[in-house]
Prior knowledge:
Aminopeptidase, globular, binds coenzyme A
Amino acid sequence: MNPTTPSNRRDALSLRLRPTSPADLPALFEFQTDPESNQMAGTKPRSREAFFAAWEKNFADPGVNSRVIELEGVVVGSIARFQAEGRDCVGYWIARTHWGKGIASRALAMFLAEETRRPLHATAARTNTTSHRILEKCGFRCTGFRMGEETDRFVAREIADFVLE
Ligand SMILES: CC(C)(COP(=O)(O)OP(=O)(O)OC[C@H]1O[C@@H](n2cnc3c(N)ncnc32)[C@H](O)[C@@H]1OP(=O)(O)O)[C@@H](O)C(=O)NCCC(=O)NCCS
């Protein structure tokens, strides 16, 4: 095996998930302000007040199981199980400076090994084909598409629904 191939280099990067703590919030807040990330996800960034208020609720909510993603000891993203419309869902977000390193794919696989609730649902903007690829690699199946109306959190967009059974 050639240790210098890109896939081997990716696997060699040390990735770890650990429970989210209040000390992680300033970094996660910065990640979610990035315009390109929001365009990809079809989201609107939260104000500082709304962001910290949402996380205060998350920490108290047993329906939420959140992890930060650490690369070589540095927080580079987040992944969580949360409830939406009465269903268990998963979502993830990687800092833009770390895109394309296989981090979301590996983090989702690691998360699914420890978070065993099924079925687990996921939604992605129809145009977010990068996220579709990540979900499908981890065994999620696309169940269809629907229109999502604009809310204070999302822009109007077509949504792809996924499930892992
Ligand atoms: C989507 C996101 C999580 C991807 O993170 P990442 O760590 O760069 O993703 P990975 O490197 O693990 O995997 C990307 C995969 O998509 C593929 N890909 C890249 N661009 C693509 C495209 N335009 N269409 C289809 N697949 C694409 C890559 O080739 C890779 O697949 P491979 O490993 O089989 O080669 C990241 O861009 C992000 O946080 N975006 C903003 C928030 C967001 O969209 N969250 C998801 C909401 S559903």
